[in-house]
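Slide 14.
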Amino acid sequence: MNEAGIRKRRARERRFLFLSAGCAAIAIFALAGLLASVALQGWRGFFSASLRVVLHLDAEVVGEKGEGDALAYRRLIKRAIAERFADAPRGDKRKLIGLFSFSSAVQLRDIARANPERIHGRVTVWLPASAKAEAFLKGGDDDGNGNAWRLMPYLEKMRDDGDARVEWNSALFTNADSRDPESAGLAGALAGTALTLLLAFLLSFPAGVLAALYLEFFARRGRLFSLVEVNINNLAAVPSVIFGVLGLAVFINWFGMPRGSPLVGGLVLSLMTLPTIIIASRAALQAQPAAQAEAAMSLGATKMQAVFHHTLPSAMPGVLTGAILGMAQALGETAPLLIIGMVAFVAEAPSGFADAATALPVQIFLWADSPEAGFAERTASAILVLLFFLVLMNAAAVLLRQRLETARG
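Slide 15: predicted structure.
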């Protein structure tokens, strides 16, 4: 090749490298921007704000044993905050209750019922702040929607007096879903996700590995084998919503299984994950040297013994990696779970596979669709939790593969 041709070839290589690096930089920049935007809003959801108030637990309002309803306790809070700012204009006094969350009355009721001896006396309690007050205490200069808030001077006064605090929001992980954004948590969604993925793994992993072993070593090649192989590859590319429709038609309408339960969700996700595990397991088995099994059979082992005692253990790092990645894919699925009814409002964490439940991606969908401004932070926080588990599962797959490969030498 002449010198001009060499220069053209090198120029094409430089252009290719430049375009490749540019595309990679654009992808990294877009991903970093997406993660940064979610993180900047989501970190606030991991912290909660509360206000300290001194009030009188009047037995005439809440009852001798605290049997009054939440509205009665809310009147006590309203009276106490009005006394706290006795010099405020009458119009502001009526609105000072807006500093507190609706769940504050329920929390105060629980305190009174758990400690009836405190009724008839004055108590000092920390109660959850409203979404607007929480947005201000977390570093905002408005009500969270870009608007000035007439109650901000009173909130600043409480903060300066030490009657307002921001702390770690443990309720995000201990509470189930709620209509009130300040008390809504992920406990129900995390429990539902754990039960659903556990059932999906227990069903799809052994079935997928055994199917891969049979297809790779024991099945007779022919038209039926080719048909099965093609359909497995096609099933791996089927949209996930189709599996949701299948679960609705078969498991719920035909077998009568409980709608919106981890039982149905696990069955649907296991069917969706099964082709992925089969394909990944077959690829791992095909990567093993055939001489290994042949040497075992030459020493008197049967074909099944050679496969299960030698080939499968060697391929296990790849098999487990494929299974974990399949479960990570199932963790982020929303469409099939919506179809089978795991989109309902669930106020308690499920205790069994047949209980009504929701999942983490579905909870994100529900919160993102809520009109209350406080759910915006909760949505971003839930997205961060979901991303954390996805990264954790992918990292576990890589580390497990490396450890097993190292252990086998």
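Speaker note: The chain is about 65% helix and 5% strand.
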